[in-house]
Design goal:
The structure is a single chain. The strands form two sheets. A four-stranded mixed β-sheet has the order 4-3-5-6, covered by helices on one side. It has a two-stranded antiparallel sheet with strand order 1-2. The model has no long low-confidence stretch (mean pLDDT 94). It has a single domain, classed as Glutaredoxin (3-Layer(aba) Sandwich). The chain has four helices and six strands; from the N terminus they run βββαβααββα. Helices cover 28% and strands 18% of the residues.
């Protein structure tokens, strides 16, 4: 199947396609710098470092739609993530995950993996989507779901018996 050809803009302003990650396992997360869940950056970075050589990527998408907890521009967001959490996984330009300006990636994700009681809308920062190496969304995780819980679903995919 493969990933859809969706344009992405890196946090540095470079345009690329989601298809550059074909064949990779992905954890896509809408992130924010001033949220109670922001410390999850630390666990996301650890997971990325541990598994990046196994064709696994964490992709962070800043969003300011929940409690105005990502008010800065892309440069400020990047600096915050690098200095406070030493983030090296790919970060993208600030986007909308709900409403009329929803980014195409999040339209795709929400259609593939609905939330609680069939809801499509993202409820808060740090909602996570796990995508397999064939481009199928195989999990949607609430903001409070720990990386340890997600890893339980991911590791068997990366290391099949």
């Amino acid at each position: 199947m493969g990933l859809p050809n969706i344009d992405l803009t890196s946090i540095d302003g470079k345009t690329e396609s989601l298809t550059k990650y074909d064949g990779h396992f992905l954890l896509v997360v809408n992130v924010a710098s001033f949220c109670g869940f922001t410390p999850q950056y630390e666990d996301l970075q650890k997971l990325y470092e541990e598994l990046k050589d196994k064709k696994f990527q964490v992709l962070g998408f800043p969003c300011n739609q929940f409690g105005a907890q990502e008010p800065g521009g892309n440069k400020e967001i990047k600096e915050f993530c690098e200095k406070k959490y030493r983030v090296t996984f790919p970060l993208y330009a600030k986007i909308s995950v709900n409403g009329p300006d929803t980014h195409e990636l999040f339209k795709f994700l929400k259609n593939q993996a609905q939330g609680f009681l069939g809801s499509k809308s993202i409820k808060w920062n740090f909602t996570k989507f796990l995508i397999d190496n064939h481009g199928s969304v195989i999990g949607r995780y609430a903001p409070q779901t720990s990386i340890i819980e997600i890893k339980k679903d991911l590791v068997p995919l990366l290391f099949p018996n």
